[in-house]
Amino acid sequence: MVVLNKIYTRTGDAGDTALGNGDRVAKHSARVAAYGTSDELNCTLGVARLHAEGELDTALSRIQNDLFDLGADLCRPDMEQDAEAEYPPLRVIDGQVSRLETEIDAMNAGLTPLRSFILPGGTALAAHLHICRTVARRAERLAVELAAAEAVNPAAVKYLNRLSDWFFVAARVANNGGQDDVLWVPGANR
């Protein structure tokens, strides 16, 4: 259980922050950039949810919770020491990735196949989900960059990769099942 009695601690005033294992790193480190961007994505998703209803809102709520799991995973670098940790570290698991794949397949089954690229837009929810998609791609790039230098849970990277696909398909669903998709017309304004 997390207890936050005091919001400011002054411990980061010199430009460093604590990771989940207690190590201190610069606030501009690759690890902080990766989990910070997953937090940004969660906030962006919160705005998207202002336009969501029903099953789609329920799924977005699940993803918001997963993004906190992802942030907890990315902020703890010592995966090889997980077994010795005082409490079991929270890690994204392959089952979370599989759930996204199942949901993508289910949503996509009701959509007409694309014959063009889609411009971000259509309904308000679809436009916000496209923003979520691009922030998820950035979070993925940062996680991959981090993984090139330090240990990163492979399931966390896979989750971000699937999540951007999930947002793309969900944006089509939010565009009245793809009927309000805004299609790219190559060279239309030459």
UniProtKB/TrEMBL annotation:
UniProt-listed Enzyme Commission number(s): 2.5.1.17
Domain (Cobalamin adenosyltransferase-like) ranges: 7-174
Entry keyword set: ATP-binding, Cobalamin biosynthesis, Cytoplasm, Nucleotide-binding, Transferase
Keyword Lipoprotein listed: no
Catalytic activity: 2 cob(II)yrinate a,c diamide + reduced [electron-transfer flavoprotein] + 2 ATP = 2 adenosylcob(III)yrinate a,c-diamide + 2 triphosphate + oxidized [electron-transfer flavoprotein] + 3 H(+); 2 cob(II)alamin + reduced [electron-transfer flavoprotein] + 2 ATP = 2 adenosylcob(III)alamin + 2 triphosphate + oxidized [electron-transfer flavoprotein] + 3 H(+)
Cross-referenced InterPro entries: CblAdoTrfase-like (IPR016030), CblAdoTrfase-like_sf (IPR036451), PduO-typ (IPR029499)
Annotated family: Belongs to the Cob(I)alamin adenosyltransferase family.
A GO term, aspect molecular function: corrinoid adenosyltransferase activity
Secretion signal, residue range per the UniProt entry: none
Pfam family, one: Cob_adeno_trans
NCBIfam families according to UniProt: PduO_Nterm
GO biological process: cobalamin biosynthetic process
Cross-referenced SUPFAM superfamilies: Cobalamin adenosyltransferase-like
Listed Gene3D superfamilies: Cobalamin adenosyltransferase-like
Organism: Sedimentitalea nanhaiensis
Pathway named in the protein's UniProt entry: Cofactor biosynthesis; adenosylcobalamin biosynthesis; adenosylcobalamin from cob(II)yrinate a,c-diamide: step 2/7
Protein localization: Cytoplasm
Keyword Ribosomal protein among record annotations: no
Any Gene Ontology CC annotation: cytoplasm
Identification of the protein by name: Corrinoid adenosyltransferase
